[in-house]
Amino acid sequence: MASDPLAEEEEEGVCPLVTGRVLYLIRHGQSDFDWSGERWASARGDQWNPPLSKQGQEQATLLTKRLLVMDLEPFRVYSSPLQRAAETAKAFASEAGTEVTFDDELVEAHIGGWEGKPFEEIIESDPGIV
């Protein structure tokens, strides 16, 4: 029977076995709310798919700088294929020397008539939201 590495006492100068993983969930930078291009067709419905705004690009750059100093090796980068998320992920991945894996399952929920509207506008347009 194999011994349990977690049950063994740590030897001096030897690091214990790493058994967990850290998952960082990062939201994309600010979207370009003036964008009026084609929507992205998904099984959930046609979704608003703008690129990052100028400020969103700056946020992605700042995020990249922050992640690079965190010494995150080994790591993988996964992203929604929506433009704003992809641009945010690619900013870091290109600087880190890795690729982005795009996964349709990471696309946000489809919110119908609220698609493409800032949160403040949604709140103002629907008095039933508290």
Question: TL;DR of this structure?
Answer:
With 130 residues, the chain is mainly alpha-helical. Strands 1-2 form a two-stranded parallel sheet.
Layout: helices, strands, pairs:
Blueprint: H1 54-68, E1 77-79, H2 83-96, E2 100-102, H3 119-125
Parallel strand pairs: 1-2
Helix pairs in contact: 1-2
Structural commentary:
With 130 residues, the chain is mainly α. 28% of the residues lie in helices and 5% in strands. The protein is built from three helices and two strands, in the order H-E-H-E-H. It has helices spanning 54-68, 83-96, 119-125, and strands at residues 77-79, 100-102. It has a two-stranded parallel sheet with strand order 1-2. Strand 1, helix 2 (83-96) and strand 2 (100-102) form a beta-alpha-beta unit. The radius of gyration is 20 Å and the shape is elongated. It starts with 53 loop residues before the first helix and ends in a 5-residue tail after the last helix. The relative contact order is 0.16.
Helix content: 25-40%
Strand order of the largest sheet: 1-2
**H/E topology pattern:** HEHEH
Give the helix/strand class.
Answer: mainly alpha
How many angstroms does the end-to-end distance come to? Answer: 59 Å
Shape: elongated
Average pLDDT number: 84
Q: Top keywords for this entry?
A:
two-stranded parallel ribbon, mainly alpha, 3 helices, single chain, 130 residues
